TrEMBL record, chain A:
It comes from Streptomyces noursei. GO terms for biological process: antibiotic biosynthetic process. This is Actinorhodin polyketide synthase acyl carrier protein. Keywords: Phosphopantetheine, Phosphoprotein. The keyword Ubl conjugation does not apply. SMART domains: PKS_PP. InterPro entries: ACP-like_sf, PKS_PP-bd, PP-bd_ACP, Ppantetheine_attach_site. GO terms for molecular function: phosphopantetheine binding.
Automatic annotation (TrEMBL), chain B:
This is Actinorhodin polyketide putative beta-ketoacyl synthase 1. SMART domains: PKS_KS. It holds the Pfam family ketoacyl-synt. GO terms for molecular function: 3-oxoacyl-[acyl-carrier-protein] synthase activity. It comes from Streptomyces noursei (Streptomyces albulus). Keywords: Acyltransferase, Transferase. Belongs to the thiolase-like superfamily. Beta-ketoacyl-ACP synthases family. One of its GO terms (cellular component) is cytosol. GO terms for biological process: fatty acid elongation. It comes from the Bacteria.
Automatic annotation (TrEMBL), chain C:
GO terms for biological process: fatty acid biosynthetic process. InterPro entries: Beta-ketoacyl_synthase (IPR000794), Ketoacyl_synth_C (IPR014031), Ketoacyl_synth_N (IPR014030), PKS_Beta-ketoAc_synthase_dom (IPR020841), Thiolase-like (IPR016039). It comes from the Bacteria. It comes from Streptomyces noursei (Streptomyces albulus). GO terms for molecular function: 3-oxoacyl-[acyl-carrier-protein] synthase activity. The keyword Metal-binding does not apply. Residues 2-401 form the Ketosynthase family 3 (KS3) domain. The keyword tRNA processing does not apply. It holds the Pfam family Ketoacyl-synt_C. Belongs to the thiolase-like superfamily. Beta-ketoacyl-ACP synthases family. This is Actinorhodin polyketide putative beta-ketoacyl synthase 2. SUPFAM superfamilies: Thiolase-like. Keywords: Acyltransferase, Transferase.
């Protein structure tokens, strides 16, 4: 069985569905911008978190999530958990 | 023309751990908590599994089987506390024509419990998108539009004056009373039965608060789960209940020799226009509401003897509120006792504002301020006197109560002892 | 004396017209929007007709992040708010935030949003419930979202009294203005045309089961047998009359009087109280019955409720003494949205000297009222709007034409706006 990985495209799709983001505005160059600077407020991020947890059957702990302030950090966090869960 | 002054002459309260003013005040003055593991349904799938439940048997409180069938639990709370308040007031109904009596009932989430239960049935456990009308009970319309709560209450007290539900989220309990005060002041009614009710301990409500991580996951220690202003707090504990009041014009109350608990001397409501669930850390809008309520009550900040805090037990709220109190009360903020009864009775959303008004009236009655339970490790950013753990004997003539709710609502109310500056 | 409260802006989202101009064009010419429901498949239900807004594309008006967190009713409310402000020429960002309030009425909140989350909960589990469910469905959501969008921090509010709530909101807004808040956006909307909302409304046993759009909602008709539910409503920009005059605003009219009562319990044997609500509103407006030029009726279209309304009107005004109309026969009953929309229609009727018609109805001679079934030109200065809510809520509101001498109101400077 292939281990699932969480990509920037996956995140963009979730941000589109859950936070009403325009995927066009999320270029590779925004990977290291903070979610706040990208215009996502706390609720949009909580909704995003919930959707990731459901789709990937994860339970991200609060502290880790709070620390993942950029798309790159969040993607890394999710993949870390996915790998951990698979191990 | 002198403005009509409005006083509380009757209190009905139904809170977790205390139904009726006597048991309610015992709980608060003894600093006991009513938070527990949820038993109203199986909370196993949820992140937060604690709540403050009311030990409520509707038939024991005089509701008939048909009333129980057609009313949501929150409406039942309202009717029971309306009757308590009316009895407590000693109002002689024959002296007040029905059209001069109105009802203002606060509720944040209406009949969410009934909606949750009935949706499950008509959708056959979520399977049917086109839910089945054949399985819908006739009283479903009463849950669809929660003005039915005000209707039931008006029927219970035979009111035919202005009647409505006020639903401003978690400030509903203050705003409903404030609205009723306005109606007496402007002559729309002579007596108002006003207050708020909510019964939100249901799967859908737990689920949405789980999703925004607003409620505490402290499931292993339910009795100590609600920890406003404590450094270890991590969310609020859901509660339920109601408090309703009989409000009258001061002179009329005096003429009939009514017992007067307190005057509602000032009230104000503002919006933060910021965020549906978020609060600006500086507390500016709540401070503006407090300032306006004090001005209406012609009360100086240093006259405030006690502050009943919103104190929900979220980090965001506790800091926001502490900042607002400092902004409005200045140095006096450090001297005045501030406590949150949500530490004991949980956060019953729209109802809690009225339950806290009841607590304020009883604090004035007894010259005792209730404590903030479970406050062992103060949050260094919350540096006021939050009356930790034990109630305090304290001369309490002028009280401020504040509330803050989703939608950005910020409300403040000032209660005074009317004898202090008799008209 | 308290300052007068005037209407300086109108924002409408109605089944027969999006925007005040389209709504009024349709309403004065009797264009109905009642048709088989399309937002869900109604064929399994006994009632199948609705007054739907079919030309609203939320994406054209609101940004993605707001769409993600809002029910249909809130999207409509945000649009109506934008239009009411624009119509009044108000730019909130240039004004004192605390000098602007929002008071809305809601009957069933964001019910479709709630439906979808209940479905997620019971079909998939609690983890599938959206974070936005914490507020997107509740009754306060429109006031909250409007205040946030426009930075309005002043005294606000939310009332729930079923159909009567739309007038109760305007009355509360007027109270705020009298206490010193110069500007309040107020009115109401509902939009619960979804399977769950449909079943909840069917439970009232007040919906018409007719399949004929022309025979489904017939108040004051011998064939009255219930109503058709609709969606939408109106928000009005209310201002302190002096402040409006000082800024040279166009004034549609004054909110001159209001009264509210509640009916006794059905088992009490006591009479209904609608008449008293009307009398309170007239007294409040310092208006004699003879000064009322037109009545916008609640028009429940149930024989008993129609009789009660006719009785109240004839008791106050006399038989056939005042024109009565119910343009909601074109769009259905909109719960909290109905009465603010009628207030808007009344103001436009005063402006144009035209009473919009009650369509489809053949007046039952047992109702001794002058029911206007064809648009009727008339000199109009004062109108009465009635609204009743399920369970016994009665509200009445008097609107009066702007006094051109006092407000310098141009005849119709807004045509083409909104």
């Amino acid at each position: 069985m292939t281990r699932p990985t969480f990509t920037f495209d996956d995140l963009k799709e979730i941000l589109r569905e859950g936070a009403g983001a325009d995927p066009e505005t999320l270029a590779e160059t925004t990977l290291d911008a903070t979610f706040g600077d990208l215009g996502f407020e706390s609720l949009a991020l909580l909704e995003t978190l919930g959707r990731i947890e459901r789709q990937y059957d994860l339970a991200l702990d609060d502290a880790a999530f709070t620390g993942a302030t950029t798309p790159r950090a969040l993607i890394a966090l999710v993949n870390e958990q996915l790998n951990g869960a698979a191990a | 023309m002198t403005a009509r002054r409005v006083v509380i002459t009757g209190i009905g309260v139904l809170a977790p751990g205390g139904i009726g003013t006597k048991d309610f005040w015992s709980l608060l003055s003894e600093g006991r908590t009513a938070t527990q593991a949820i038993t109203l349904f199986d909370p196993a799938p949820f992140r937060s599994r604690v709540a403050a439940q009311a030990a409520f048997d509707p038939e024991e409180h005089g509701l008939g089987p048909q009333e129980v069938r057609r009313m949501d639990r929150a409406a039942q709370f309202a009717v029971v506390t309306a009757r308590q308040a009316l009895t407590d007031s000693g109002l002689d109904r024959s002296e007040h024509p029905p059209h001069r009596i109105g009802v203002t009932l606060g509720s944040a989430v209406g009949a969410s419990m009934t909606l949750d239960q009935e949706y499950r049935v008509v959708s056959d456990g979520g399977r049917l998108e086109h839910v089945s009308h054949a399985y819908a009970p006739r009283h479903l319309y009463n849950a669809f539009v929660p003005s039915s709560f005000a209707a039931e209450t008006a029927w219970a007290v035979a009111a035919e004056g202005p009647t409505t539900v006020v639903s401003t989220g978690c400030t509903s309990g203050i705003d409903a009373v404030g609205h009723a005060v306005e109606l007496i002041r402007d002559g729309s009614a002579d007596v108002m039965v006003a207050g708020a009710t909510d019964a939100p301990i249901s799967p859908i409500t737990l689920a949405c608060f789980d999703a925004i991580k607003a409620t505490t996951p402290r499931n292993d220690d339910p009795a100590h789960a609600s920890r406003p202003f404590d450094g270890t707090r991590n969310g609020f504990v859901l509660g339920e209940g109601a408090a309703l009041f009989v409000l009258e014009e001061l002179q009329a109350a005096r003429r009939r020799g009514a017992h007067i608990y307190a005057e509602i001397a000032g009230y104000a409501q503002r919006c933060n226009a910021f965020h549906m669930t978020g609060l600006r850390p500086d507390g500016a809008e709540m401070a503006t509401a407090i300032d306006a309520a004090l001005a209406e009550a012609r009360t100086h900040p240093s006259d405030i003897d006690y502050v009943s805090a919103h104190g929900s037990g979220t980090k965001q709220n506790d800091r926001h509120e502490t900042a607002a109190l400092k902004k409005s009360l200045g140095d006096h903020a450090y001297r005045v006792p501030v406590s949150s009864i949500k530490s004991m009775v949980g956060h019953s959303l729209g109802a809690i504002g009225s339950i806290e008004i009841a607590a304020c009236a009883l604090a004035m009655e007894n010259h005792v301020v209730p404590p903030t339970a479970n406050l062992h490790t103060p949050d260094p950013e919350c540096d006021l006197d939050y009356v930790p753990l034990t109630a305090r004997d304290w001369r309490t003539d002028t009280v401020l109560t504040v509330g803050s709710g989703f939608g950005g609502f910020q409300s403040a109310m000032v209660l005074t002892r009317p004898g202090r500056n008799a008209a | 004396m308290s300052p007068a409260t005037v209407v300086t802006g109108i924002g409408i989202t109605a089944p027969n017209g999006l925007g005040a101009r389209h709504y009024w064009d349709a309403t004065r010419t009797g264009r109905s929007a009642i048709a088989p429901a399309t937002r869900f498949d109604p064929t399994g239900y006994p009632a199948q007709l609705a007054g739907e807004i079919t030309d609203f594309t939320a994406e054209d008006h609101l940004p993605g992040p707001l769409l993600a967190q809002t029910d249909r009713v809130t999207r409509l409310a945000l649009l109506a708010a934008d239009w009411a402000l624009a119509d009044a020429g108000i730019t909130p960002s240039t004004l004192d935030a605390y000098a602007m309030g929002v008071v809305t009425a809601s009957s069933s909140g964001g019910f479709e949003f709630g439906q979808n989350e209940l479905r997620a909960l019971w079909s998939k589990g609690s983890r599938h419930v959206s974070a936005y469910q914490a507020f997107a469905w509740f009754y306060a959501v429109n006031t909250g979202q409007i205040s946030i969008r426009h930075g309005m921090k002043g005294p606000s509010g939310v009332v729930v009294s079923d159909q009567a709530g739309g007038l109760d909101a305007l009355a509360q807004a007027r109270r705020h203005i009298r206490k010193g808040t110069p500007l309040v956006l107020s009115g109401g909307l509902d939009a619960s045309l979804c399977p769950w909302g449909w079943v909840a409304q069917l439970a009232s046993e007040r919906l018409s089961t007719s399949r004929d759009p022309h025979r489904a909602y017939l108040p004051f008709d011998a064939a009255a047998h219930g109503h058709v539910p609709g969606e939408g409503g109106a928000l009005l920009l209310l201002e302190d009359a002096d402040a409006a005059r000082d800024r040279g605003a166009h004034v549609y009219g004054e909110i001159a009087g209001y009264g509210a009562t509640f009916d006794p319990a059905p088992t009490s044997g006591r009479p209904p109280t609608l008449r008293r609500a009307i009398e309170l509103a007239l007294d409040d407006a310092r208006t004699a019955p003879a000064d009322i030029d037109v009545v916008f009726a609640d028009a429940a279209a149930l024989p008993e409720l129609d009789r009660i309304e006719t009785r109240a009107l004839t008791d106050v005004f006399g038989a056939h003494a005042v024109p009565v109309t119910a343009p909601k026969t074109m769009i259905g009953r909109l719960n909290s949205g109905a009465a603010p929309l009628d207030v808007a229609a009344a103001l436009l009727a005063l402006r144009d000297g035209l009473i919009p018609p009650t369509v489809n109805v053949t007046p039952d001679p047992s109702h001794p009222i002058d029911l206007v079934t064809e648009a009727r030109p008339a000199a109009l200065r004062t109108a009465l709007v009635l609204a009743r809510g399920h369970g016994g809520f009665n509200s009445a509101l008097v609107v009066r034409a702007a006094d051109p001498g006092r407000h310098d109101a141009p005849a119709d400077p807004r045509e083409g706006r909104t």
